[in-house]
Amino acid sequence: MEAEKLFLLFSLLMLQFSSCTSHDSLKMNQTIKEGDLLISEGNIFALGFFSPGSSSNRYLGIWYHKIPEQTVVWVANRNDPIIGSLGFLFIDQYGNLVLYGNDDQKLPVWSTNVSVEENDTCEAQLMDSGNLILVSRKTVWQSFDYPTNILLPGMKLGLDRKLGIDRFLTSWRSAEDPGIGDFSVRINPNGSPQFFVYNGTKPIIRSRPWPWRNQMGLYKCTFVNDPDEKYCVCTVLDDSYLLRSILDHSGHVKALTRRESDGQWKEYWKSPQFQWDYYGHCGAYSTCELANLNEFGCACLPGFEPKYPLEWSARDGSGGCVRKRLHTSSVCQHGEGFVKVENVILPESSAAVWVDMSKSLADCEVQCKRNCSCSAYAIIAIPGKNYGCLTWYKELVDVKYDRSDSHDLYVRVDAYELADTKRKSNDSREKTMLAVLAPSIALLWFLIGLFAYLWLKKRAKKGNELQVNSTSTELEYFKLSTITAATNDFAPANKLGQGGFGSVYKGLLPNGMEVAIKRLSRSSGQGAEEFKNEVMVIAMLQHRNLVKLLGYCTQDGEQMLIYEYLPNKSLDSFLFDESRRLLLDWRKRFDIIVGIARGILYLHQDSRLRIIHRDLKCSNILLDADMNPKISDFGMAKIFEGNRTEDRTTRVVGTYGYMSPEYVVFGNFSAKSDVFSFGVMLLEIVSGRKNNRFYQQNPPLTLIGYVWELWREEKALEIVDPSLTELYDPREALKCVQIGLLCVQEDATDRPSMLAVVFMLSNETEIPSPKQPAFLFRKSDNNPDIALDVEDGQCSLNEVTITEIACR
Ligand SMILES: *[C@@H]1O[C@H](CO)[C@@H](O)[C@H](O)[C@H]1NC(C)=O
Ligand SMILES: *[C@@H]1O[C@H](CO)[C@@H](O)[C@H](O)[C@H]1NC(C)=O
Ligand SMILES: *[C@@H]1O[C@H](CO)[C@@H](O)[C@H](O)[C@H]1NC(C)=O
Ligand SMILES: *[C@@H]1O[C@H](CO)[C@@H](O)[C@H](O)[C@H]1NC(C)=O
Ligand SMILES: *[C@@H]1O[C@H](CO)[C@@H](O)[C@H](O)[C@H]1NC(C)=O
């Protein structure tokens, strides 16, 4: 027997891997050794021997054939590397794929374990999907059933009870060692199935439980939950993209995409990114708010209070919540009920009980109510099928707010809590009723509605991207006579300044309130459009870092906006003034930076709309009496609908020095162009110097260029405004410079999102190294700015620039 095997081995070694037959398959009398490759029919994947990174160990693996940097998607002998170059793979007489490290070893380093009918031939084939299959009369083995750390499109992740396999991912030990590491991604099939990322046996991240709405985007993932099979499988919707999901050796799950034209892998999605992505971040019986980075984010479910109030108030939510002590005795007596918690990812569901309501016609609430240990229920629709009732009998863990693909959770509370909730909701209902009934407000609503409708109609005709269905505002309509009186008939003494679309006046209303009035110039037809835009946009926004619009006036051809009056005027009037800048100490500057970042974050993603400001600059940041920053001037803002994140315009408007390269050159704008402008502001605030005013002659560097030079020479702190003397926190200042440089990077995709910016500013976290920024050098002065801004009665040559650039 042994002799027979050895003989077979030697005879096999004598045979060359035949290269004239098909490249994608391995037949029973062939071997693959060092230098040989199996290449899938469409040239997509290759199988052969490789060494990861600088390691000299040899492994048999599968990688993308056409991608220059080796991207391995599967490894056979993960834990048993081959030393030297004598490894070879063949199909043995029992039909198994067998890998030997060298010919005098008795045991293979890796093999499949299948049984085929005696005398049947077997053949291995590498498919264009990246799957290595072993076929006899049918497929008897496939690498897709034994994934390593990569999930490819078409690969199932999860259980097949009939075949008795559980397909899960396990991380590599390190970037250079594909051995099985600590992390794994696998399904927990109990209750309502869900996926977990484990560190050893400890869950660290959890997916939402089944059912998922099919996730659409670049790819589509389907979650199958049958009695025999429970798995998730993803497919790419656009063929021009390659997709791989990886569980890396640090426990991160990432989806990476690549287009031939991109020439590199791009991160499409990643988890965990933030603290709250971790499983059970806020402990039991709590909710975790995903959108709001600056807040603590943890809150107790209705009827619960923090278990450890001290830790809780110190922003440590891991202890979770317990039922309010006062009420515990009455939880399961008469009168109790359920309070709805809206828009959440449902709690950990492995112990939850699932009932198909369309079969049993069960009433979910009744079901939960009659069992005292039932703590919550949810009603779930399976797309295209039936309704189900999910009930929980254990601790509620890992409830997170999420607006997409979320559910309502009904949490059991006692009679007190129920009464309290009812009272609160009645209060707010009464308020709403009152508001609807009050005739003057109703009239205002009508006017605004009409206004919005006409405007939308006009926009829709132009095929523009804007679509707003409802506005909720408390805008006041001012009569022209009121405004004339308030400004003393627009007396020059009351003029605060002048912008691209008109002048700004200070006004005193009859009730003693000071306001700022923006009077749009009658001549500019553009102004009317901007005016409507601004009313619509601002009316829908409410944030402490945005200037507040109080009302508007349209009468006798006048168009005016009435804002809250901010006595301290704009940030640039402090920053670039020799004496006033002394009022901005480091703490104030840092708070202003964070405030501006929060305001932009709100515009980009926290408000109900997605808004790109397009003209962020220091003169558009107003300061209130406490020096809190407020973003103003939404005349050029763009509202994005749904999932659109980027647009292009043929009319480039904005201010040189603050505009990103892709916007100036191609008219492309996105949230990332606002990030660029923010980066410029940040550097200006730290340095007290203007980006487009900063002169260094040889070479003629911009402020960005100068900061970049200092950064590379590790002298970045030299840029800090000398008027701060030594009175600043060097670590914080350095962090600001680094974030500023990240924001002004040349490639928009390299720039962080505002969410990431706010996170980096407010947390101790690792910050990436910036790549070379855009606009290092100052252009010669053959590109004069258009002078339009007047501040403090003085003309300054700068700021508002309108340019027309035709694209395409
Ligand atoms: C071995 O391979 C050759 C082609 O290279 C084929 O013609 C022959 O039938 C194969 N023999 C067996 C036993 O599979
Ligand atoms: C191979 O499979 C058989 C059953 O099909 C099983 O009993 C045996 O333990 C397996 N061997 C290995 C090494 O996995
Ligand atoms: C397999 O082949 C051997 C030798 O050719 C033969 O003796 C045996 O009967 C075959 N077995 C089956 C099940 O066909
Ligand atoms: C994984 O667990 C180990 C040991 O418990 C721990 O040291 C490590 O920090 C954990 N890593 C992560 C990412 O959770
Ligand atoms: C309540 O539900 C739990 C979990 O399903 C079960 O073990 C228990 O027997 C039920 N109690 C009653 C009174 O139905």
Could you walk me through the main structural features you see in this protein, from its secondary elements to its overall organization?
The protein is α+β, with helices and mostly antiparallel strands and 808 residues long. It folds into 5 domains: 1-146, Orthogonal Prism (Agglutinin, subunit A); 147-273, Orthogonal Prism (Agglutinin, subunit A); 277-413, no CATH class; 476-564, Phosphorylase Kinase, domain 1; 572-807, Transferase(Phosphotransferase), domain 1. The protein is 22% helix and 28% strand. The chain has 15 helices and 50 strands. The protein has an 8-stranded mixed β-sheet with strand order 26-25-33-29-34-31-32-30. Helix 10 (586-606) packs antiparallel against helix 12 and helix 12 (671-687) packs antiparallel against helix 14. The radius of gyration is 32 Å and the shape is globular. Mean pLDDT is 81; it is low at 6-21, 434-442, 456-472 and 780-808. Bound molecules: 2-acetamido-2-deoxy-beta-D-glucopyranose (NAG) (5 copies). It catalyses: L-seryl-[protein] + ATP = O-phospho-L-seryl-[protein] + ADP + H(+); L-threonyl-[protein] + ATP = O-phospho-L-threonyl-[protein] + ADP + H(+). It is an enzyme of class 2 (transferase).
